[in-house]
Amino acid sequence: MGLADLALVRASLADGDFEWRGSQDEATVWQKALDDAAAGEDVQLANPMHCAIRIADGIWVNASVGDGMPNATVSAAHLDSDAHKRLSEIVRQHLDSSEELPLFDIVVQLQEAVAELPVPSEQPREPTPPPSHGPCTMARVMFWAHHLVAPSKRRQLAAWCPELRVWGIIKLGYPGYLCFEGEEKDVADIASRVRHMQWHALSLRTEETWSYSGTPEEALRACPFAQVDANARTLRTHCEEITDMGEFVARYVYYLC
């Protein structure tokens, strides 16, 4: 169901409205699997495929597709809270249903819903993607939370980091800390998602950016949070959980030294 659903979505989109969210090697494997599925072949996935689907300017659906039901979230940093909740509710309703093509239905209904949204006086323009081999703008943020204990939040953060290609370190318990590092646009995406979660209290404590001369893949490998995975053949970002405050501080300082 998942591959057939995604194949239909991909066939209905222009090239600029669909992006694989993985390494170049992963994108090649995923595209072949999608082509084989579209040709009617029986394809089994060892791991979910991650992609981004453009609904409108600045509004994307980030999806993970495997052999079962897909997972999808809306990314729309420039929308107000009510509009974002409305679009997210559309996604939730389809994911909770037993539809045969939930992702395709999500895309179609979101396109219709976005067309009905009030147009702001000044619509933010999407940033121009940097050149393939030009400097990459990287970013790091740290959030403080009153507490971080809910398994649902931990599962979401664990899924978002590889989906968005962001390195994460989170300190569980009271208080909670959430640190993310990666390309600026991806860090902004996960920061927006974190803000839209329900928190007793949440505040942004640090935010910094820097430039890296190289490809996005090289920039991710050079991230301080990625030191333990720097030599891995296939780059896959993840979220690291720490429960002890002393260990968290020591690990955070060690990574940045």
Please, could you describe this protein's structure?
There is one protein chain. By secondary structure, the protein is an alpha+beta fold. It has two domains: 2-115, Ubiquitin Conjugating Enzyme, CATH 3.10.110; 135-256, Alpha-Beta Plaits. Helix content is 39%, strand content 25%. The chain contains eight helices and nine strands. It has helices spanning 2-11, 24-38, 81-95, 102-115, 151-164, 184-196, 216-221, 245-256, and strands spanning 18-20, 49-56, 59-65, 71-75, 135-145, 166-171, 176-183, 202-213, 239-242. The strands form two sheets. Strands 8-5-7-6-9 form a five-stranded mixed sheet. The chain has a four-stranded antiparallel sheet with strand order 1-2-3-4, with helices on both faces. A hairpin with a 5-residue loop joins strand 3 (59-65) and strand 4 (71-75). The protein is globular, with a radius of gyration of 19 Å. The chain starts with a helix and ends with a helix. The mean pLDDT is 83. It comes from Malassezia cuniculi. Residues 142-205 form the Small nuclear ribonucleoprotein Prp3 C-terminal domain. This is Small nuclear ribonucleoprotein Prp3 C-terminal domain-containing protein. InterPro entries: Phi-like, Prp3_C, RWDD2A-B_C. It holds the Pfam family Prp3_C.
